[in-house]
Amino acid sequence: QVQLVESGGGLVQPGGSLRLSCAASGSFFSSTVMGWHRQAPGKQRELVAAITPGGRTTYTDSVKDRFTLSRDNAKNTVYLQMNSLKPEDTAVYYCRENRYGTWGQGTQVTVSS
Fold first, then answer.
1. How far apart are the first and last CA of the chain?
2. According to the model, what pLDDT value does residue 2 have?
3. Is the confidence at residue 93, as pLDDT, over 90?
4. Cα dist. 43→39, 68, 103, 108 in Å?
5. How far is the CA of 63 from the CAs of 30, 50, 58, 60, in angstroms?
6. What is the tens place of the pLDDT at every residue in 25-47?
7. Which residues are bridge partners to 57 per DSSP?
């Protein structure tokens, strides 16, 4: 059974930074696309960023040049470095793996002064 465990969320002031981590169980990790999604209150869940097994990344326009997604295949972990955070980044952030479609439990990110 695949499990994804997220960590790193919290409360941060506008302009601040956070790093989210998503640790995966299973041997499939290095061969699958991993993604971070977010869902703000009253809004649909959206894809924030994704990374291929080889490390190629894509980002939604609103986070380009502020967020950086990376992966460590030896640790079965992906990292989302979030800089210059804005109040509109406030959401629950979810990790997802594409092989089996498993979601993590989500981690709350709140950007507020």
1. 40
2. 86
3. yes
4. 6, 23, 18, 15
5. 25, 12, 10, 6
6. 988 898 999 999 999 999 999 99
7. 51
